[in-house]
Amino acid sequence: MSAAEALSQARAAGIQVRIDGEALVLDASAPPPAEVLNLLARHKADIVNLLRPGNDGWSGEDWREFFEERAGIAEFDGGLPRDQAEARAFSCCVGEWLHRNPARSPSARCDRCGQSKGMLLPYLTGYSTKDPGHTWLHQDCSRAWHQAHRAKAVSALVAMGISIPAKFADDFGKNGSA
Ligand SMILES: [Zn+2]
Questions:
Q1: Into how many domains does the chain fold?
Q2: At 79, is the secondary structure helix, strand, or coil?
Q3: Each residue of 71-94: pLDDT tens digit?
């Protein structure tokens, strides 16, 4: 069982779980059943990670909710079969992650090949207006850089417990982005 499954079992038992520092705080109207407590204790470290917001301000839970919401919209409003809806939702997550995790490279040096010779362009990769930042790239290096950055987004999402939908993996492989 994963941390996410342990959390949803706790919720099914009427227990809300929050984090306070390194501890889990349980919010329930009745004493929590021992089996739920055991489950939460066993997965505590992972649950804390899942609920703690990352650098982008979203926790693993927030990402999972975003994924589920997008998949639901694609399936019920968009009329897609479930597997395609999940692939679409995963693409939305990748896009959102990239926006929320802008890359910044400090100096006028290509962030892909490391050279400072040639014409470097500042690429704006996130949408934070407070601190947009940018990364320097040669135009020729941009494609490979963006593929690598996209792969980073995919691993970050996988690490947060969202598995890559089969249909998405197909597209991903086809585009040579993996
Ligand atoms: Zn370069």
A1: 2
A2: coil
A3: 999 999 999 999 999 999 999 999
